[in-house]
Design brief:
alpha+beta; C8orf32 fold; Serine Threonine Protein Phosphatase 5, Tetratricopeptide repeat; two-stranded parallel sheet; 6 strands
């Protein structure tokens, strides 16, 4: 049987320089007391506390040994780098230089390694894909009291500074460079319906962001055929973030691989309710309909997929 692809939040096609808008940002005074009131030792980040509790057995030994013990000294260095900033824009610029230049955190497109997803591994190897890098950056921001949020698109997670006055996206795959929402909408063909409902491009709570970590852990289990474990992770992800379309999609894939066609159809339909132009969900739901002998419904889904993306191949 044709194997439908999984959907971790992972990569974004790099926008051309011409497509990236030059944004002049007005900046107000930074609330310095937010930084000053924090203890010099970490321990305030709920995100870090939960992210450090993920199972470590599938991480390399060195990551298990070092792991989250690297976070406290990293925080001390981050605070030293940003404490003298006088505006939000300067604070964000200092934070980006600290993270990418001084500390050398790097992007990877290797989606098959837990080391690049979980906080322990990213801290140890200084490398991660978008969810892994965002976890470290957000943990530091939470400790420092910075108004930085995770933001999702259909294929990617980036960050955003939003204090009610300054709203600036932080593209981790471009060393924190500003990329406007319109670029993501255009390049990923994000439907306005999904944006208006807060499925994509909304500021995520820490709880909602943790849903993405569980969702990606589910993908790692799915790739190994551990469907019971992946199912637990997808359920946890959806409990934390009920608008996580990819968790429904990937759970549907698990069901499809096991010929559980009705369950696959239910999950693909839930994914499409959140993200109605998801071509892969339409194609795969068509496969599930075909598995049930409902060829007319399968053709309807595949026709819709071709309307959204002309020339798209339909699986046999």
């Amino acid at each position: 049987m044709w194997n439908p692809p999984v959907k971790p939040w992972h990569r974004l096609r790099r926008p051309t320089l011409a497509a990236i808008a030059t944004v002049v940002l007005a900046s107000g005074p930074l609330n310095r007391h937010v930084l000053a009131d924090k203890s010099s030792s970490p321990g305030h980040s709920r995100l870090a506390a939960e992210a450090c509790q993920f199972e470590k057995s599938n991480l390399p030994r060195e990551s298990q040994d070092e792991g989250c013990a690297l976070l406290p000294p990293l925080l001390v260095r981050a605070r030293e780098s940003v404490h003298a900033a006088s505006t939000p824009t300067e604070t964000l610029n200092r934070m980006n230089r600290f993270f990418f230049e001084q500390e050398g955190f790097q992007v990877t497109y290797d989606l098959d390694s837990a080391e690049h997803l979980f906080l322990d591994g990213v801290l140890s190897g200084k490398k991660g894909y978008c969810v892994g890098l965002a976890t470290v950056y957000l943990a530091l921001a939470e400790e420092l009291g910075l108004p930085i949020h995770a933001v999702a698109t259909p294929k990617h997670v980036f960050l955003r500074w939003d204090d009610g006055k300054l709203r600036q996206n932080i593209e981790l795959f471009q060393k924190g460079r500003e990329v406007p929402d319109e670029n993501y909408i255009r390049e990923q063909k994000i439907p306005q319906e999904s944006v208006q409902r807060g499925v994509f491009l909304a500021n995520l709570t820490r709880k909602e962001f943790l849903g993405f970590v569980y969702q990606n852990r589910g993908v790692l289990e799915s790739q190994q055929g551990n469907f019971e474990a992946s199912g637990r992770n997808y359920r946890r992800a959806l409990h934390l973030n009920g608008k996580l379309a990819a968790a429904y999609y990937n759970r549907g894939n698990d069901a499809l691989k096991q010929n559980r066609y009705r369950k696959a159809i239910r999950d693909y339909t839930r994914a499409l309710n959140l993200y109605p132009t998801d071509v892969w969900a339409l194609k795969n739901r068509g496969l599930a309909w075909k598995g049930l002998g409902e060829t007319e419904k399968a053709e309807e889904d595949w026709k819709r997929a071709r309307e959204i993306e002309p020339g798209v191949g339909v699986p046999e």
